[in-house]
Amino acid sequence: MHSISLGYIGVGVSDSAAWRSYAHEFLGVMATENSPGGAERLRVDDYAWRIALERSEKDDIAYVGFEVAGPNEFLDLKRRLTDAGIEIEPAESEMLAERGVVALFRCKDPDGLPIEVFYGPTLVTHIPFVSPQGVRFVTGEQGLGHIVLTTTDIAATRRFYLQLLGFRQSDTIRMQMAPNFSLDLEFYYGNPRHHTVAIAPVPAPMPKRMHHMMLQVETLDQVGHAWDRAEASGVKLLQTLGRHSNDKMVSFYAATPSGFELEYGFGAIEVNEPSWRFARHDKISAWGHKRL
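^ thats the sequence. predicted structure below, dont judge the formating
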């Protein structure tokens, strides 16, 4: 069992100016210098960057970077994927410079999303992270946050993320979509964060591969202030404040300029792996999270 976390994500965006305003005025993340290839990048902590804004008309997640601890874990994971028949693309020096990491390889998940596995990110502790809104994000060994993806082949996706990448399943939530139709959301962890990846099985491809991404802050007040900033800056609020049934996070949801959702939350429980017990939930939230 190795630790794996959400190191970074790339988002294809058609309106960079809208994203810059959204990131700084609402999210409270920090702009930093562009990548060598010209992607606009955002900081949330001591890492040189965590979110890259890549010019694209798709307005969806473009790639995911999963971080492992070091070279041994990196080579073990690379070997496991290769042995399973997954096509691996080693990173050349130009790609390593673009991402700012020591080592990286690329592959794709069963639905075609580019996956990057790396170790050795660049830290910039000599330039402290300063949020334009006074926010402190929960990252560290828990990584950037979490992402929720859709898939049309849950069996293949489950195998890829659990058996090959090495995530473990924390729990599941059964969502009753209609009297005769339900979806079982699966939640995967690879570090103390309750889930780094969640998978929603869908009968047909959705307009967006990513349903939402989540950023976690250190205090409940920071969530409340973010709600006020959203109202003040014209960000579209999608769900009211609520507490999720499985990870106990208190959060709300807002639309991004790209059309997928963003969860802004506080207070999620953490996985204590030796004593963790898998559970099923029949409701996604204990209270709140009403659609607006």
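The CA atoms of residues 192 and 274 lie 11 Å apart.
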